[in-house]
Design a protein that fits this description.
By secondary structure, this protein is mostly helical. It has 3 helices and no strands.
């Protein structure tokens, strides 16, 4: 029983990691396209920088480190209430 669970768990971990890597790659290319589109519209550089920074913050959730930090922040936040 336990021996059959280990490969299934490892397979799930590998698939999750590959999906996050795929998502990061596509999000990073989307950031470039987003920035170029905003520049074509003629927005000021300050506004473009702020919008792109907000857009980039979602990419952090596509990593184990980003998800861990989010989880720890929510645990701390719940503990402080």
């Amino acid at each position: 029983m336990i021996i059959s669970v280990i490969p299934a768990g490892l397979r799930t971990v590998v698939r999750s990691w590959l999906a996050m890597r795929w998502g990061q790659r596509h999000a990073k290319s989307g950031i470039k396209i987003f920035q170029e589109t905003l520049q074509e519209f003629g927005l000021p550089e300050v506004a473009i920088h702020e919008l792109v920074t907000q857009y980039k913050s979602t990419v952090n959730l596509l990593s184990i480190r980003g998800l861990s930090q989010l989880a720890f922040r929510s645990i701390r936040w719940r503990g402080s209430q």
